[in-house]
């Protein structure tokens, strides 16, 4: 084998990703492959080795794609471990652009799940070679023959080509690597062409600047050469080029088909986004590589610092995190109740939760997140078309001609005994059944058209609890439709609080208003005067609760004497309270916002 530093021959390189549904064993399989190739010292080995974030290790999920260079039987294997959750599908699509093949992992005790199908179709769209493997064959509940037949029926991969492995015990993993070397084609590329390298991931290191993961397509990427970033139009020197083995190992250069990392002393995070093409300044490529489609955020919420002084810190943190995760968006906004913050867009609810938690951990911020909402398209009576992702910005009802909301096509794969309860769940969420297909006598694929606003809050939790955790969900956007929606405002002492207002279907507006006012009555501390909490649609109040006033005992200092003295003091107190009510602003502590919004989730 050549030393690292000399460029590897194309015919000996294999670039691949591991794709699967959540919890089907991608990261565990990556561990076994690392061990088998001797990439990690046995003393340093730990479970889910490539999951480097604390958050990933705590939750037991992969959030970020991770690449590693391995050697097996004289071949170089560039392996990318990808996330499985539907919210991180964008990470998967980016990693597939740097590969020629995939290992499709299916749990031998559960069979094909919704994300298995989605990721498999992504691989087929990219014309990648698929090596299928049934994992967890060591489990008592494993039934590899049945599920191999199911994979053949649904995905068209011949059952006799599907490998049987156990990522936990390591059984069959070596055969899988041999199959990868044999079946996945080597990359194509011309070493004599001008350099074209694709950045498929980046993160910010506070000591070294931006560290980018790159896949060289044509030409050579050499340490010390002057590089041009084609989309950003910036020029930088390649300070360090290297490969991950899985520790960073500097090399002299990378040739066509190779995957590694690049450090070019970049301080401005906008210059090395995912999908950027890198070429040499002296010998520029004629055109950039195709890059990626920008992901469209689907769920929006406001993020505000608990301490207003941290606004600039939050902006800086969002900039750095956006480099590492380009699938969320943000723009500044202000709220009467919460001050200055940002309106952020995410791919889903888990994505929103992860980004918020990463901001709090990695940048030491304390944040308040408003209730999640989706993007509505509004037509006004004046003929204007607006896009509204913040309920507070919806024009008054008299100015509205129509509101359209986004819809999803949801694929739910479930054991057949739960079909009834899932149909009931989808009907109550305004769903329309478009297809029902039996994958096998025991398993059904239900396809429903559902409004995104109904899926975004607790649909996934309900789905799991109604099916004892057996059902799986995948979805994709299918455009907008008109709907009968209304904005519910929450008023405290007659003043609307923008953080609590929401756009809901008119049939559910009363329930939302009643639930929210009851919760706020429990959370908001008592004041010196009665505080009415009202839910309103336009000028019509649909629900009301009252936080009763404190009663200060102004007569405590009296003992005996004439009753008129007591009455005089009480009348004086009453007049003071009335004046206070006219002037009084309700003090709502920030933790009350957090509690109310969390309850709303």
- Global morphology: globular
Low-confidence stretches: 1-6
Give the class from helix and strand content and strand pairing: alpha+beta
Across the major sheet, the strand order is 11-10-16-7-8-15-12-13
Helix content: 25-40%
The CATH superfamily name of the largest domain is: P-loop containing nucleotide triphosphate hydrolases
Write up what this structure looks like.
This protein has 601 residues and is of the alpha+beta class. It has 5 domains: 10-183, P-loop containing nucleotide triphosphate hydrolases (Rossmann fold, 3-Layer(aba) Sandwich); 196-280, Elongation Factor Tu (Ef-tu), domain 3; 299-372, 2-Layer Sandwich (Alpha-Beta Plaits); 377-483, 2-Layer Sandwich (Alpha-Beta Plaits), CATH 3.30.70; 487-600, 2-Layer Sandwich (Alpha-Beta Plaits). The strands form 6 sheets. Strands 11-10-16-7-8-15-12-13 form an 8-stranded antiparallel sheet, with helices on one face. It has a 6-stranded mixed sheet with strand order 2-3-1-4-5-6, sandwiched between helices. α12 (506-523) packs antiparallel against α14. The longest helix is centred in the C-terminal third of the chain and has 21 residues, at 563-583.
């Amino acid at each position: 084998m050549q030393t690292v530093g000399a460029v590897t021959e194309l015919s000996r390189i294999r670039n691949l990703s591991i794709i699967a549904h959540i919890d089907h064993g991608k990261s565990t399989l990556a561990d076994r492959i690392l061990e088998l190739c001797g990439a990690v010292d046995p003393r340093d080995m730990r479970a889910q080795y490539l999951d480097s974030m604390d958050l990933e290790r705590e939750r037991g999920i992969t959030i970020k794609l991770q690449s590693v260079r391995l050697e097996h039987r004289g071949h170089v294997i560039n392996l990318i471990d990808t996330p499985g959750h539907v919210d991180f599908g964008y990470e998967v699509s980016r990693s597939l652009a740097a590969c020629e093949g995939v290992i499709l992992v299916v749990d031998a005790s559960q069979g094909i799940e919704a994300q298995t199908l989605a990721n498999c179709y992504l691989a087929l769209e990219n014309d990648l070679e698929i090596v299928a493997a049934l994992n967890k064959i060591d489990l008592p509940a494993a039934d590899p023959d049945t599920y191999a037949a199911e994979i053949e029926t649904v995905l068209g991969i011949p059952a006799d080509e599907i490998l049987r492995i156990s990522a936990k015990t390591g059984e069959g993993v070596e055969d899988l690597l041999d199959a990868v070397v044999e079946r996945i084609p080597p990359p194509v590329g011309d070493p004599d062409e001008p350099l074209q390298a694709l950045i498929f991931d980046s993160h910010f290191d506070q000591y070294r600047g931006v560290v980018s993961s790159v896949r060289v397509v044509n030409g050579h990427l050499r340490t010390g050469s002057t590089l041009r970033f084609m989309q950003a139009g910036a020029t930088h020197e390649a300070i360090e080029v290297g490969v991950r083995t899985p520790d960073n190992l500097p090399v002299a250069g990378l040739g066509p088909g190779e995957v590694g990392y690049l450090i070019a002393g970049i301080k401005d995070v906008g210059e090395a986004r995912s999908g950027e093409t890198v070429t040499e300044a002296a010998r520029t490529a004629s055109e950039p590589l195709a890059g990626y489609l920008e992901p469209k955020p689907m769920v929006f919420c406001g993020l505000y610092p608990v301490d207003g002084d941290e606004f600039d810190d939050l902006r800086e943190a969002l900039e750095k995190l956006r480099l590492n995760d380009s699938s969320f968006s943000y723009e500044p906004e202000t709220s009467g109740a919460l001050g200055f913050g940002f309106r952020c867009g995410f791919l889903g609810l888990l994505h929103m939760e992860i980004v918020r938690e990463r901001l709090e951990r990695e940048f030491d911020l304390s944040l308040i997140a408003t209730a999640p909402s989706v993007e509505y398209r509004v037509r006004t009576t004046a003929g204007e078309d607006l896009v509204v992702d913040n309920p507070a910005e919806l024009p008054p009802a008299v100015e509205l001609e129509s509101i359209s909301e986004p819809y999803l096509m949801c694929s739910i794969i479930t054991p057949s005994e739960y079909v009834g309860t899932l149909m009931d769940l989808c009907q109550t969420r305004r769903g329309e059944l478009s297809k029902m297909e039996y994958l096998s006598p025991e398993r059904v694929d239900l396809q429903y058209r559902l409004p995104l606003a109904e899926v975004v809050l607790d649909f996934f939790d309900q789905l799991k609890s109604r099916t004892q955790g057996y059902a799986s969900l995948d979805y994709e956007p299918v455009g907008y439709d008109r709907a009968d929606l209304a904005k519910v405002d929450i008023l405290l002492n007659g003043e609307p609080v923008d953080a609590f207002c929401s756009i809901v279907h008119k049939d559910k507006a009363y329930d939302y208003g009643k639930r929210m006012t009851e919760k706020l009555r429990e959370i908001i501390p008592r004041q010196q005067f009665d505080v009415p909490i009202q839910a309103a649609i336009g000028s019509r109040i649909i629900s009301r609760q009252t936080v009763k006033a404190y009663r200060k005992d102004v007569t405590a200092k009296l003992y005996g004497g004439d009753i008129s003295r007591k009455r005089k003091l009480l009348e004086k107190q009453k007049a003071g309270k009335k004046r206070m009510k006219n002037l009084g602003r309700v003090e709502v502590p920030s933790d009350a916002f957090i509690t109310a919004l969390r309850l709303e989730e």
